[in-house]
Amino acid sequence: METPRNPDDVDFGLGTSDRRYTYWRQSSFHQQSQEPKTPISIVTNDATKPLLSRTVSSIDIPPEIDYSFDYQNDTIFEDPKRKLSDLDSVLSIFRVIRSGSRQMRRLFLMISLNVAYSTAELAIGLFTGRVGLVSDAFHLTFGCGLLTFSLFAMAASRRKSDHVYTYGYKRLEVLAAFTNALFLLFMSFSLAVEALHAFIQDESEHKHYLIVSAVTNLLVNLIGVWFFRNYARINIVYRKAEDMNFHSVCLHVIADSIRSAGLILASWFLSLGVENAEVLCLGLVSAAVVMLVLPLFKATGGILLQMAPPSIPSSALSKCLRQVSAREDVVEVSEARFWELVPGHVIGSISLQVKEGVDDRPILQCVHGLYHDLGVQDLTVQTNYD
Amino acid sequence: MLFDCAALTIGLYASYISRLPANNQFNYGRGRFEVLSGYVNAVLLVLVGALIVLESFERILDPQEISTNSLLTVSIGGLVVNLVGLVFFHEEHHHAHGGSGSCSHSQSHSDPHCHHNSHDHEKHDEHASVSHECHEKSLASHDEHHEHHLCDHQSIIDSCKIGSSNSHDPHDNAHDHDHDHDHSSHAHHQHDAHHQHEHCDHSPDHRCHDHHHHANPHELQYLDSKSDSSLGKSGSQQRTPVSGQEEPKKHHHHHIDHNMEGIFLHVLADTMGSVGVVLSTLLIKYKGWLVADPACSIFISVLIVSSVIPLLRNSAEILLQRIPRAHEQDLKEAINDTMKIKGLRGIQNLHFWSFTNTDIVGTLHLHVSDKIDTASVKAQVLNTFQDVGIKDLTVQVAVHEFQMRSFGQFMPCRQQDSLVFIAFKTSMSSNCEG
């Protein structure tokens, strides 16, 4: 459905009817204005630039970092400096949140809501001596921890690349999304175990105050779902690193609300006198969560495993390869390897065996042009003479 | 228990699948599966630990009566099973603690194929199959002892990996090897003579052999130059002398297989859990302390989480394409050496990242002035980086004139030994007929 050669077409024509893209149209207006557009930034957001216009340096390699080699203060290798920068980054989170995108502020609001709610629950539970409330509060905080990690990833990923993380920190968002997905899978697993437990033990004691807390929890989470409604789909075409992270946050919130809804349903069914209602509901919830999360899990895992970019079909890549190897002065093409740093930023390296004595500049230019048209933003071409 | 099995299965599956060759989908091969499974294992352990802590808090608030009799037998049985597993991960244990947090990725028992030129897939396969054969052999020899636990097979594979580089006795041999390095330089020389081929395989990762108690920098130096010469390079001119200040860093060049470490930590966690259960059961039985059980579990899960954190950090760093910690210093030296090459105007897009814990991939763009022979410059750069263990390097050489015309303008100017590039992006039209 999507033409691989020109992913940007989708914004303007092709994909506007596709509901999977709706979030993009909305969010792009807010985020683009805050995106630093300096040419020096390592992860230039090329998805928002016209790729195909020939007048705009189509074989341009983004200048990226200039590795200055003899720095007077060896910042990389000294720990105190880095710790300072870490502390700095922690402090800067708040600054970034204030200046950050709308989604980030919403996430922050969401987390603080959750924290406030769980603190209240904890306090009530401790004072009234209801252990169920306390454990519920703990579980809520647990989930909050991962949301906070996502938030941290969002804040940190804005940092420019340095000499240690030469590709920048964007990948942190993918990692956060992966971790979130992993957590959700873990949650569904433990829900399934709980269901089994309930099935074996068949204890149908239910606590009414837990129902109240589940309802409140559901409400809080529904606010979150509304916040991230743009991402509330199972399959999303990821354009940027943020998309993955927001998607994972959204799925997290959805999974939480499904869980609370399941609990409410279970207690309702129990009060109606349905046998094994809890088992049924918990099982359904865990299956639903797995179904929800698996696509994201696969996508993020694929990126972390350095798989070939899913945004470029392998047929296009091999066609490009054939085109390169069909050139007269190219003897052999080897080690054509492409991977995605974050969604929408494809990096490749290729090694060419060139005939003796041929000027390799036009070859370089041509190869760069070909792959850049395909969407490979960061290409390294090695030319070896026979 | 089921959960543990699942986690261990992930590890087993990953270590199996990571030996498969590269294909269209996985351009670099599937070695990342091991790193990712290490990360997954670490995350799961942290989650489990946190959950256990939470549950223990609940139980402190609301102590429950536990039937001690059946619990004791079950927990002792679990302890025995886990101890058997732990024995096999003894090696891993060593390395895990040697790393001590800061920089400890990659593996020490690296079987040969990891270090061969990874371009060569046939070779890759061959080595993989050799080590598989070896697995089977030792599986056969060990089967009668232990066949009940998943992790046992895992550990055999693991120990066999150690064995395959030395001999077929997995356990003692690796230890001998270390001790030779550690204590007597004479033994070391002999050792080198005997295992020449092995050192060829290992040379870039030479410092990975345990240098815990290594006090003598000269010997280290010797090792380095040895490794260089076995590669066929003259190492002495390339390598700047190892200064005393760097010495402590070298100690941390341990190489750990993330996957194996994750599995080991899992087994360790289980063992500690069983120990805790046994202890707390005894305490409850004879002292009547109901709090003992949650207290024990909190203590143990805190221990587990703190032991997992290094693994978590290292695998996350690899997944985030960080410059490999173990090679940071070497890379810096190599870059400095590279900068001294005549006719080189600058380096750009310098990226080094470790694909797995042993394979480091690098790409860089050289800008050279047009009067120089590009091929020789490239060969020099390749050699320099190969000496520090980067086998997989892609170098793009761009002649400066060309650079001015099409890529923008680069004006290198030396300012107090620091090279600064000023890049002006110029719009230009491509003249490529693809």
UniProtKB/TrEMBL annotation, chain A:
Q: Does the keyword Transmembrane helix apply?
A: yes
Give the Gene Ontology MF terms in alphabetical order. zinc ion transmembrane transporter activity
One matching Pfam family? Cation_efflux
Under the heading InterPro entries, the entry gives: Cation_efflux, Cation_efflux_TM, Cation_efflux_TMD_sf, Msc2-like
Q: Where is the Cation efflux protein transmembrane domain?
A: 107-305
One cellular component term from this protein's GO annotations in UniProt: membrane
| Residue intervals passing through the bilayer | 107-127, 133-153, 174-196, 208-228, 249-271, 277-297
Alphabetized, the UniProt keywords read:
Membrane, Transmembrane, Transmembrane helix, Transport
Q: How does it sit in the membrane?
A: Multi-pass membrane protein
Subcellular location(s) of the protein: Membrane
Q: Which GO terms describe its biological process?
A: intracellular zinc ion homeostasis
Q: Which SUPFAM superfamilies match?
A: Cation efflux protein transmembrane domain-like
Major place of residence: membrane
| Annotated NCBIfam families | CDF
Protein's UniProt name: Cation efflux protein transmembrane domain-containing protein
From TrEMBL, chain B:
Q: Which UniProt keywords apply?
A: Ion transport, Membrane, Transmembrane, Transmembrane helix, Transport
In this chain, composition skew of type Basic and acidic residues spans: 108-147, 168-185, 193-208
One Gene Ontology BP term is:
intracellular zinc ion homeostasis
Q: Which residues form the Cation efflux protein transmembrane domain?
A: 1-101, 251-320
Taken from the record, one Pfam family name reads Cation_efflux
Q: Name where it's found.
A: Membrane
Q: Where is this region: Disordered?
A: 98-147, 162-254
Q: For this UniProt entry, which residues form the secretion signal?
A: none
Primary location: membrane
Single GO molecular-function term? Answer: zinc ion transmembrane transporter activity
Q: Where is the composition biased (Low complexity)?
A: 228-238
* Membrane topology category: Multi-pass membrane protein
Question: What are the TM regions of this chain, as residue ranges?
Answer: 35-54, 66-89, 263-284, 290-312
Which InterPro entries does this entry report, sorted A to Z? Cation_efflux, Cation_efflux_TM, Cation_efflux_TMD_sf, Msc2-like
The Gene Ontology CC terms held by the record are:
Golgi apparatus; membrane
Family membership, please give it. Answer: Belongs to the cation diffusion facilitator (CDF) transporter (TC 2.A.4) family. SLC30A subfamily.
Name of the featured protein: Cation efflux protein transmembrane domain-containing protein
